[in-house]
Amino acid sequence: MARLMSTERITHFQEEASFTVVDEPAILETEDLDRMFLGGGPDPDTISLASVTAVTTNISVTVVEARQLIGLNMDPMVCVEIGEDKKYTSMKESTNCPYYNEYFVFDFHVPPDVMFDKILKLSVIHSKNLLRSGTLVGSFKLDVGTIYFQPEHQFYHKWALLSDPEDISAGCKGYIKCDVTVVAKGDTIKTPHKANESDEDDIEGNLLIPEGVPAERQWARYYLKIYRAEGLPRMNTSIMANVKKAFIGENKDLVDPYVQVLFAGQKGKTSVQKSCYEPIWNEQIVFTEMFPPLCKRIKIQIRDSDKVNDVAIGTHFLDLRKISNDGDKGFLPTLGPAWVNMYGSTRTYTLMDEYQELNEGLGEGVSFRARLLISLGVEILDTSSPEISNATDVQLEGIPNISETATGKVEEFFLFGSFLEATMIDRKIGDKPINFEVTIGYYGNEIDGAAGPKSGKGKKGSGDEEETELIHNSSDEEMDDDGDLTSVATTPPMKPVVTDRNYFHLPYFERKPCIYIKSWWQDQRRRLYNANIIDNEDGLNDVQEIIKTEKTYPERRLRGVLEELSRGCSQFLSLANQDQNLSGRTKLDRERVKLCMSEVESIGQQAKAMRSQVKKSTVRDKVKLAQNFLTKLRFLAEEPQHSIPDVFLWMISNGKRIAYARVPSKDILYSTAEEETGKDCGKVKTIFLRIPGKKGFGPAGWTVQSKIEIYLWLGLTRQRKDYLNGLPNGFEENKLCKGPGMPCSPPISLTYMMKQIFQLRVHMYQARSLFAADSTGLSDPFARVFFSTQSQVTEVLAETLCPTWDQLLVFENVELFGEACELRDDPPIIVIELYDQDTVGKADFMGRTFAKPVVKMADEHYGPPRFPPQLEYYQIYRGNCTAGEMLAAFELLQIGPNGKADLPPIDGPTDMERGPILPVPLGIRPVLSKYRIEVLFWGLRDLKRVNLAQVDRPRVDIECAGKGIQSALIPNYKKNPNFSTLVKWFEVDLPENELLHPPLNIRVVDCRAFGRYTLVGSNAVPSLRKFIYRATDKQANNFTTSEEIVVVSMEPEPGFKKMDTVVKLDCGADAVVKVEDDDKDGKGKKKKRKKGEEIEEEELDQSMLDWWSKYFASIETLTEILKAQEATLSESEDKDDMDITDGGDIKPEDAPVKPPKRGKGKKDRRKQFDPFEKKKAKLDELKVYPKELESEFDNFEDWLHSFNLFRGKGGDDDDQNVTDEDRIVGKFKVRTE
Q1: What percent of the chain is predicted at pLDDT more than 70?
Q2: Structural domain count of the chain
Q3: 1038-1044 and 928-936 as β-strands: parallel, antiparallel, unpaired?
Q4: What values do phi and psi take at 4, rounded to 5?
Q5: What positions does the domain C2 occupy (predicted)?
Q6: Is 443 helix (H, G, I), strand (E, B) or coil?
Q7: What is the DSSP letter of 743?
Q8: Nearest to 993 by CA among 700, 764, 765, 752
Q9: Which of 127, 155, 660, 758 is least buried, going by the fewest C-beta atoms within 10 A?
């Protein structure tokens, strides 16, 4: 399928960086960092830190009134209920149309996922008092998530339709008019525009339902069948059970499971199966609820019944949008019978489970917990039929057993993995022996030791322990019936070796440990294959990068992407409909294939049609449309009916589980058709392990726990003959010897006979727009580069967000295993981490990026076009957010038989002050030219306090490429915030390639007594390209920029603007300057200071009126107009919107004066004001502005660029407390010519 890159996730990796483009942040195609760093794709049930961290949420409900309530002699009151919280309005006596206008606020401090699942219930109760609970007239309910995802997070003046849950045939019981708003931290709430009373009285047109939901909803029955569960972890929450087992020796299953289902505020439970790890329920829970329901998810949870406290074993959410379709050819919610996999905390039982919240469905599961066989059906009720029961209580009914083959034929699957490298192991873990464990479902886990298929007779056991110890030093190896070893799930423990002060690595060298696991699952590969065909996408990111960096021909790349997309769609149509008669196909499978085929066909046709319409001018719009295709495909790719569970990798140190990674099984699933194969199947993949639970999010989780190069292959055992084909060549297999005539087992390790020696050269030139890690708003950055088992650091540069290191790092004698040609085409990745050096404590993490080097083999010539490598920009990521760019180049040079003599020479240090630091060589560093930067210093406005002290004597420092200038000092900021010296300039050497220009750094400092300087705020202008002055006759190397620092755009003094202006009338020019000087003392207290402009060039009798007469006449006119307006305003205070032009239009009908020609005034004939026309018939008045010109002329944005000044430490993507808005201490403007 044409690979379109997701913009929802940050894509980091491409298999080959494009080394020909200098200005493009290199994107490696292997995988997105988010995914890589999290160690695999998240389960649909799990989200980021934001969804699992408790946040304060306010839900405000205004009950305005109720109408058309059914009943006689009513005393109605309204109950507002959210979760367990209830609040009541006052009671209104003897009315069917009560008016309340009462306001309620509910405060919650829970994770958003929990919040969105809460149900808001509005009920009308009749005759409630202290002695009686009252009679329910009708109720309405919807989930909080539905409200939150409305525009502005609210329903405003909408009517909730009431129905009686006890009598589903009764119809509408009345309406409640209410406002509902959900506000989480950081949300801005806008009050909606008031509609006309008549519009709001249209109840049917203003119902409280989301867009797309029909006004008349019907009652329906939801039948959730629960058959059985498998693979529950060995556990018990009762201490007494373990004591009993220890003393009496009973070996019962120590779990009493039942299933609890929450849907639309109702709760249903199955019976409890006592002492059973493989419970069989064969029960169905029946909910009666309106259709479509106003809640998105059904929560299904397996719980362990306990006398003290029931504990969740695993949780699964059924998203109703994914198992239904509301289109013309749509279908009602349906599912299964199918297995759903549940993930949560580790399977190891501990008394206090620190990851228990994972079992509740909060966060990404770190281990397989169980799988549950369920099915869902929905039946719309005909409420007029007499057979229909009116009861809406949750029902529990028994159902017949389901056949073994109903969910598909059980097949034997084979998972193979080889650990090629384990580096960047966090040194905090300690130097105890480390091993890795791989599990798939309940297979491979050392506690379970499951060795056979669960269906049928099943077979379990921990294998022969003596043989285990002798053979492999591993704790988990089992034999199956034919003598083949079914499971080697852990690598042998190995003591880590120090890489540098932060990280260890494991000394695998030429001997690479392997794991393999046999497992048995229902063969539902078709579901994963279809998802793989849809999910194989890339390309949109390329187009966006081309547009962003202003490279040529983005339209060609987009046409190519759309061509691939339409071709991929037709491939899907030919492949997806195979295996129609496969056992275990459910109604949802058939409907989803129909839906996917129609959607994909439509997308393919649209992409084909759009391809011919792509032009240079329409590229941006077409990219947005292509993005919509991508969103649709992503939705279709998510399979609600699970099959093979995900694979988990765990790093274990001295028996303690440290970090994990989760690999979706579809990504490594093998198929004979290439399009259906998972994107990582049979490939060496880089995975970063992470800390489990909440600790794995935010700053604590950014430290790499371990970086693993691993090869994974998953497929049917009968297809496994080529499972080693994707590994780097040049190895020998080490197998367990089991005697003559015994079948061959997979290798337990690989020994590489081929070893290549390389030298890596890292050319670290500069970085820009880095994260502000210090309280000053700056950082002291240095970079740490990791490659294979080595690491090196650059020097630390103080107080900058745009460091220029200009440093060459040389990694000597890098050993890589495999054939030379493979290493040339697919070298290992380089990891670059940026840190902020602190004087006390450890360095702060600022971001991370990845690169692949250009490789030169010993027999290749070092020369164009590939060498020397060009500098490229690499996007830096901090968590899920971008945190700047780094300009660097990387080359990997093979050391041949002649040693280093064949390598290009390295020049020694050139700058004695920097000591032994090697600079970037001349062929790679940019070619420099001399530029002149001119700055027009304007003034400062509204600067915020620094350390509680007001800014008194500010100065602006401009710096670029190590050179810079300082503005004149403002002696008294409060009295006059403008600079005395306006224009300054400095010369600087900048790269000829404009895309490599360093940023322009702007800093405002306050000069205080005793020679102290305090940073007020700073900003870095990342690109200078748009400010370069280009002469009309030839390309000039002059760079001119005029700059004004106007903090929060407050009252720029117009005097300076006038000085630039060419004035055609001498008297006008003199007068302008005098007026401006006069105004400076007034500081804006008099309206007349604002710009009187000169008259148009016309035939005027200068002897009759001089300029000043016209000026004062204009002021008089303005005063009269303003007085008239004030009188009009006082008379019409009740009007909502009163414009300044209502009393009399002071703005002329002429267009406003063009800002660049501000000196040239336009006369205002003021034909509309008849009284004045009569008074001053022959008077040509000037246009007088009663307020500052900046607000009148759109902040002068037609000739000035606005930038924010920042101070303080930057906020993280997961840090809810710090936003960029909080760090703004003002704005500055740059004039471009």
Answers
A1: 72
A2: 6
A3: parallel
A4: -95, 135
A5: 39-160, 199-334, 742-867, 914-1039
A6: strand
A7: P
A8: 765
A9: 127
- The CA distance from 1048 to 1205, in Å, is 10
| Structure-token pair, residue 1114 | 């204009």
Please give the angle made by the CA atoms of 468, 469 and 475, to the nearest 5 degrees: 60
Backbone angles phi, psi at 248, to 5 degrees: -95, -25
Count of Cβ atoms closer than 10 Å to residue 757 Cβ: 14
Same domain assignment for residues 256 and 393: yes
Name the residue among 82, 167, 94 with its Cα closest to residue 127: 94
Are 576 and 671 members of one domain? no
Determine the 3-state secondary structure of 1156 from DSSP. Answer: helix
Distances (CA, A) of 617 to 24, 321, 555, 613: 21, 37, 9, 10
Q: If DSSP codes are grouped into helix, strand and coil, which group holds residue 381? A: coil
Please measure the distance between the N-terminal and C-terminal CA atoms of the chain and give it in whole angstroms.
47
Q: For residues 1119 and 1115, give the distance between their C-alpha atoms in angstroms, rounded to a whole number.
A: 6
> Given a cut of 70, is residue 458 above it in pLDDT?
no
Q: H or E stretch including 760?
A: strand 755-768
Same domain? 128 vs 236? no
Q: Using CA atoms, how far apart are residues 67 and 204, in angstroms rounded to an integer?
A: 12
Q: Which residues pair with 433 in a beta bridge?
A: none
Inside any domain, residue 969: yes
For 926-976, the pLDDT digits (tens) are 888 888 888 877 777 777 777 777 888 888 888 887 778 888 888 888 888
Alpha-carbon gap, residue 608 to 626, rounded angstroms: 11
Asked if the structure places residue 470 within a domain, the reply is: no
Element (H, E) at 984: strand 983-991
Kindly state whether residue 325 falls inside one of the protein's structural domains: yes
CA dist., res. 560 & res. 543, Å (int):
10
| CA 467 to chain CA mean position, Å | 49
The answer to whether residue 115 sits within a structural domain is: yes
CA separation for the pair 414, 490 (Å, rounded): 15
CATH number at residue 128: 2.60.40.150
Identity of the residue numbered 342? M
pLDDT at residue number 190: 72
Closest CA to 204 of 244, 237, 168, 161: 161
Q: Are 717 and 723 in contact (CB under 8 A)?
A: no
Tokens for 1025, please give them: 């390209």
pLDDT in tens, 1145-1187: 434 334 333 344 334 444 343 334 444 444 444 566 777 777 6
Q: What's the CA gap between 1211 and 775, in Å, rounded?
A: 11
895 and 975 in a single domain? The answer is no
- What length does the chain have? 1233
| Alpha carbon distance 678, 682 (integer Å) | 9
Show which of 407, 425, 458 is a domain's final residue. Answer: 407
Residues 649 and 632 in one domain: no
1096 or 579: which leads in pLDDT: 579
CA distance 542 to 554: 9
Domain boundary among 183, 207, 241: 183
Residue with tokens 């704005």: 1227
Alpha helices in 119-185 (DSSP H): 144-148
Asked whether residue 898 falls in the same domain as residue 759, the answer is yes
Do 257 and 301 fall within a single domain? yes
Strand extents, DSSP E, 622-754: 647-653, 656-663, 683-689, 706-716, 731-734, 749-752
Q: Are 1089 and 1082 in contact (CB under 8 A)?
A: yes
Long-range pairs, 489-493, Cβ under 8 A, ≥24: 489/437, 489/438, 489/439, 489/443, 489/444, 489/445, 489/446, 489/515, 489/517, 490/435, 490/436, 490/437, 490/438, 490/446, 490/515, 490/652, 491/419, 491/435, 491/436, 491/515, 492/435, 493/433, 493/434, 493/435
Residues 556 and 423 in one domain: no
Which structural domain range is residue 814 located in?
Answer: 755-925
